[in-house]
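User: I'm putting together a teaching handout on how sequence relates to shape, and I'd like one worked example. Could you take MFS transporter from Dietzia aerolata, show the sequence you're using, and then write out its predicted structure as tokens right after it?

Assistant: Happy to. First the sequence, then the structure tokens directly below it.
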Amino acid sequence: MAHHIATDQSGAIEKATIRRITRRLLPFLVLLYFLNFLDRVNVSFAALQMNADLGMSQAAYGFGAGLFFIGYFIFEVPSNMILHKVGARIWIARIAVTWGAVSAATAFVQTETHFFIARFMLGFAEAGLLPGLILYLTYWYPERHRARIVALLYIAVPLSSVLGGPLSTAIIQHADGLFGLAGWRNMFLLEGLPTVIIGVVTFFYLTSRPAEAKWLTDEQRGWLQRSLNDEAQVIASRQGTTKGHRGLFSALKDIRIVTMSAVLFSIFYGFYGVSFFLPQMISAMSVEWGVEFSLVEIGFITAAPFAVGTVAMILASRHSDRKGERVWHTAIAMLVAAAGITIAVLGNSSPYVMLVGIALLLSGVLSATSTFWAVPPSILTGMALAAGIGLMNSFANLSGFIGPYLAGYLKDRTGTFDVPMYIIGGVLVVAALVLLGSRRGLSGASVTTETSIPDEVVSSGR
């Protein structure tokens, strides 16, 4: 009887703690990532006017859009290690202020070269935000909650199109001439400056570690710290070390980290290869469909597949947490994405079939991403985890350079997006098979769910 009472009390503390953390931190983190992704992908909507104003070809636009990820790559791992050292509150605030300022400054580029420099600097300024947020969540959530929590964080990605697409195109269309600037220039300005303000707020709002969380009770802080410490000991026993993590450079050479980096590269390749060109794809297809869309209508049509992808991502992540399984969930989602891109290409003569295919692609890559990020904390801790997440995300984001540039180049050469879309499908299939072939080495990616809390606990904190 006493054991049952103690278990019930522990479960009640867990529910209350997770609910409190989620309500306190997650909405603000989603807002940050929403602004981040909006400032990253709004260039795809700016391209509807900007390319002509600056005299850029599709290949030059793809190259410039992709330069973001070169700057991102250079500073990604150091940024995440700095965050682990100085704390999330200071470092995430710094990231937000600098990327918002650079994004706003893009409003004043005058040449193709200026655009290239602005995109490179934006990536350099933003580097470390996503891996920093993923790392930050591991400080607050035990393993069995993380896929759902990452999925809730990733709502910001589709929201940046569901809400950001119509917002960006409305600014372009209706703010044309404001401040004496073209519509696409005002879009960068009006969407970049609020990020600077939120960055300042971040410094005062975020709490770096649970030990500093005065908004948790002593009982809640104690439960959380014990749970996280117990998980660190389990990981340490898997690795055969008493410190809970190996040396930094050993982690960076770990074949599992290399494999997971390649898998994440393919997932991001699928996302960026399509998202940077989706507004232009819809605009071009409208001619074949015999319908003329306004900029705002293109924004709403672009948002539809992202809305579907959001629902799929949340359902998949909850199922992954409930089953305590990550690898198969990630691989199957990648195969769904590959099937979706194939449907979109083969059915591009029909607007409905093409949008269904794009929706399947986005459902797959978003779902795969949310379950993927639950894997690294199960095999690494401490500075090795910070560096490992940074390395994975850094390498994977190179796909954001290769994907848009290759898609733009092949579009210029062939006149269609068919070939680059088929390449995306092939990359996703190969990476899914590699992941499944490596699943034994990722045995830590299967989590114990005996003490998992019901779905409604996380839902209540949204």
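A couple of points you could highlight for students: Residues 2-459 form a domain with the Growth Hormone; Chain: A; fold (CATH 1.20.1250.20). The longest helix spans residues 2-41.
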